[in-house]
Structure formats: structure tokens, C-alpha cells
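Field reference: sequence -> structure
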Amino acid sequence: MTDILMRPFVALQVAVHELRQREDGQTTTEYAILLGFLAIAIIIALYFLRGVLRELFSEAASSVSNAPN
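Structure field:
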């Protein structure tokens, strides 16, 4: 079980190490900035859509709880 949990963590460590060893640091920085902007955009979208998402999940939960046995 711990092997399944450790594989993604080790893969992430390897990826970060490979990024640090790359010569093209400018491109890596640009991707990091782009990723930061993308994360901010997703957070803002979720903030404005929170009511719609809450209603959607509530409807899904009520349909599951009202499902016939």
C-alpha cells in the first residue's frame, strides 16, 4: 500500500530534480508564471461559480439519496 502512495511522490521529486538540472531556466520560469496565472484564474472562476457548483452537488446528492433500493 505504501508503494502505491510513494510512487507519485518519487515521480514528483524526480521531475523537480530534472527541472533544476535543465539549462533552459528561462523557459521553466515562464511556465511557472503561466501555471501561477492559471491557478489564480481557476480559483477566481471557482469563487464566482461557487453557488452554481453548490446547487449542482446538492441536486446530485439528493438524487443519490432518493434513489430506489
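Note: Helices lie at 2-21, 25-48, 50-65.
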